[in-house]
Design goal:
4-stranded antiparallel sheet; 5-stranded parallel sheet; alpha/beta; 20% strand; 9 helices; Arc Repressor Mutant, subunit A; Rossmann fold
Length: 234
């Protein structure tokens, strides 16, 4: 599930985007000004940002510029949303670093199509129904996982946990970030619960002689190890 940060100060439009993008399978978080958006991206980088041009305090163009200037956020895809339709404005938005530009009012179907096109280009592991890492394959449509030719039987929570890790191999997710992405921001779950489900995921994934692809980073969280080699001894 792709996580999208919607930065929009018009409450009715923000709620409309939240509702419709949620129906399309996106994990939506909302920010109504640029300062909040920068904090949210710093805490847990989304897979894509929908960024309104006209924002209070800090403009969308400036937010885009700051995200592109930071090493940890420069590769996050950004789609600008704006009432400005002039060619020079579109050029300015794209030159600032936006991946695409949509003029208000727009149809939800066009927005979703643009988002998926950008994600396919920049985050193929998120946009595709099938994610792969080494010899592990995760099919989001059928909810099936294989390691090599072997079926891996996971519960719903372990499946979502693996899906999140496979979207960004090598990235270390903190326990708090995994709680938000797997269980949701509105659900109270003990931090220790993450460790329990990581243990279950490891038990299902690993057989004798197979290296554990889930790396524990002390005091930080968990990641899929990019140096993982199928069949290597643990």
């Amino acid at each position: 599930m792709a996580k999208v940060l919607v930065v929009e100060d018009e409450a009715p439009l923000a709620e409309l985007l939240n509702y419709n993008l949620g129906k399309e399978g996106f994990d939506v978080i909302l920010a109504d000004d640029g300062d909040d958006a920068l904090v949210m991206v710093e805490e847990d980088a989304p897979d894509i940002v929908l960024l309104d041009w006209m924002l209070p305090n800090v403009s969308g163009v400036e937010i885009c510029r700051q995200l592109r200037a930071r090493n940890q956020t420069r590769d996050i895809p950004i789609i600008m949303l704006t009432a400005r339709g002039e060619e020079e404005d579109r050029i300015r938005g794209l030159q600032t670093g936006a991946d695409d530009y949509l003029t208000k009012p727009f149809s939800m179907s066009e927005l979703v199509a643009r988002m998926r096109a950008v994600l396919r280009r920049t985050r193929p592991g998120v946009a595709s129904d099938v994610a792969t890492f080494a010899d592990i394959t995760l099919d989001r449509e059928t909810c099936r996982v294989k390691r090599g030719k072997r079926d891996v039987h996971l519960g719903p929570t372990e499946f979502r946990l693996l899906d999140v890790l496979m979207q960004r191999p090598g990235r270390v997710f903190s326990r708090e970030q995994l709680l938000d992405r797997v269980w949701g921001q509105d659900v109270y779950v003990e931090i220790r619960t993450v460790d329990v489900h990581v243990g279950r995921l490891r038990k299902a994934l690993n057989r004798r002689g197979e290296k554990d692809p889930v790396r524990t980073v002390r005091s930080a969280g968990y990641a899929l190890d990019e140096t993982y080699e199928p069949g290597a001894r643990a």
